[in-house]
């Protein structure tokens, strides 16, 4: 181990020594402020017939070198791909050619020259000018083995993007997916808005927030766990269709689907219900798939998933009956529900009711079966403090969750616009918090005041953008679709 470290230190020192020699020669690369390139690698290859024998300027990172006396081949990588550079001593001059000995893999160079094709048929640039633009003082992973340590790939995404080009494609597709989502909504008259990330109340969802402190006001504030309550205030104010996509923050566990900060979108439309939100959801997912992948068939980790409408619909209590045999239409008291839950191994917490039990049993026994896109409806009022009650059964709400690949990817309501009912729901949530539920919804008197002013019938929808991207990019973890996922620091 000590020998390996010594060898590594020696190699790093050699790079610094080469930098010193460049500086001594008056060629400090870090003093160069710009390089005017004319083409990218892919463009030169795609337009070879047009560009052959034409002069171009390219720039990129050195990924490989091969020398043959007074001639060398250098492969550089730019933002679009790689291209070969052919360098001859008599073309750039003896002194400039000698400088090639001071180059290392990872250095960034600018090249001017003529496009041609080698005898081996490779499209290349024959250099007549070469400029060292940046000296890499670290060592890139060896190209055949690459950067394989997954933890290190997340920590050093900048290296991951260099040596694993397919990673860049994932994030290019991420950008296209986000653009397509916004495009779908913009084309349908939705207005993109911005709402606060810092607030004195962490509302809009049941989740544990991050707490910070505002020094000037001397009060604790929270990073938003959702943007729902502000967006609904805008509907009160007279906007009819609004959405916001952005970062949310939840101080909870981390796994392949959860990161403390994540991207989601919430949208609200006046004068519609959750049925309209269902139609919007399935059509949006299909539109984005067609736009970015050219098909509604997703191939995810060996599973074929079709996001084309219509999606299956299932009632939560019916799903519990289907997968456990327990029929909650025959169970009407909290005591009966708790007794059933105990037999099924559900952990009983203080304050749990029949509605909580249905939700817990659904999560434990049903979600794992929902691979193809499915709308789950009939959520108990206890777990839906912001959703309108079902007029035929006030114990449940006009709400759905959308599941794909067993994951919840969207959540929507016919929004509760009865301020009296809303206050009672918040008061019940406060009791749950007193029972020890850190994720219970806090009281928000200003929001109640807003809907007392008058919230029209409204449909609201939230979509987990990162989960959509995981599915559409066929990646196994949320960390694979976040450029810089949250990581525990490495102790020195």
Question: Any overview of this molecule?
Answer:
This protein has 492 residues and is an alpha+beta fold. The protein has helices at 2-24, 41-46, 48-51, 89-92, 94-98, 150-155, 157-163, 165-186, 228-236, 274-293, 316-324, 334-343, 354-365, 419-434, 445-454, 465-473; strands at residues 55-68, 71-77, 82-88, 108-117, 123-134, 191-192, 198-199, 211-214, 219-223, 241-249, 261-270, 297-300, 303-306, 312-315, 374-377, 389-390, 393-397, 399-404, 407-414, 458-464. A hairpin with a 5-residue loop joins strand 4 (108-117) and strand 5. Helix 7 packs across helix 8 (165-186), helix 8 crosses helix 10 and helix 12 (334-343) runs parallel beside helix 13 (354-365). The longest helix is centred in the first third of the chain and has 23 residues, at 2-24. The two termini are 17 Å apart. The relative contact order is 0.09.
